[in-house]
Amino acid sequence: MDKPFIHLKPSLVQNLDHQSLSQNLENISYIEKFNTLNFSKWQNEIILAFQIQSLDFFLDSNWVAFFSIEAGEEEAEIFREGCNQVYYWIISQMNQENQDKFYNQEQEKCDPAELWKKVREYYASSSAENCANVIVKIFNLKMEEGIVSETVGEFGHLLNLLCMIVPELFKEDIILNIMAFYSLKLLPS
């Protein structure tokens, strides 16, 4: 870690106490619970909300490592308490299936950065299984009267997730072809 990094963090934590962190988390507007189908959208909303509230450092394992090693006792305690609150808040933004998958009652410390990493690795890692799962979800979408905009929005989120999983496959012309094919496939008969 370089010096600016080391000196940046304590000032953030000195201004962060239990009450202000709770208030920052309460200020985050409603985020649809993570239900496996909406990973890309959920992830983007969490990141944006945390950036707006200046809490995104809790998702960065470098900050967690820094406070484990470099911080003073008081700052480390504040940070640990913050980690607990952020960890449980993220868990609360998941449906039951994902809570069961990622929440471990026996773990001694709550590390939101590690949780974030596990969720991303599980749903957005470049694997054939993840790619196939997203493609199946795309092709199972149905355009029905009254929910066209929701279906198109869901398609956009799934395509974004597919681009994260297999970025080397997606150049602009390929994405346009997929969108055209998808649009034709979903037109009512």
Jot down its keywords.
189 residues, mainly alpha, 10 helices, disordered N terminus
Describe the structure in your own words:
This protein is mainly alpha-helical and 189 residues long. It is built from ten helices and no strands. Mean pLDDT is 75; it is low at 1-11. It is 69% helix and 0% strand. It has two domains: 3-124, no CATH class; 128-186, no CATH class. 22% of the residues are buried.
Compact overview of the structure:
The chain has helices spanning 3-14, 18-27, 39-52, 61-69, 73-92, 96-102, 112-124, 128-140, 148-165, 172-186.
Question: Topology, please?
Answer:
Layout: H1 3-14, H2 18-27, H3 39-52, H4 61-69, H5 73-92, H6 96-102, H7 112-124, H8 128-140, H9 148-165, H10 172-186
Helix pairs in contact: 2-5, 5-7, 8-9
Low-pLDDT parts are: 1-11
Write the element-wise H/E pattern from the N-terminal end onward.
HHHHHHHHHH
Strand share of the residues?
under 5%
Shape: elongated
What integer is the average pLDDT?
Answer: 75
Over all CA atoms, what is the radius of gyration? 20 Å
Q: How many β-strand runs?
A: 0
Query: How many domains make up the 3D coordinates?
Result: 2
Q: Enumerate how many helices there are, as a single number.
A: 10
What would you call the structural class?
Answer: mainly alpha
Distance between the termini: 59 Å
How many strands, which pairing sense, and closed or not: the largest β-sheet?
Answer: none
Helix content: 55-70%
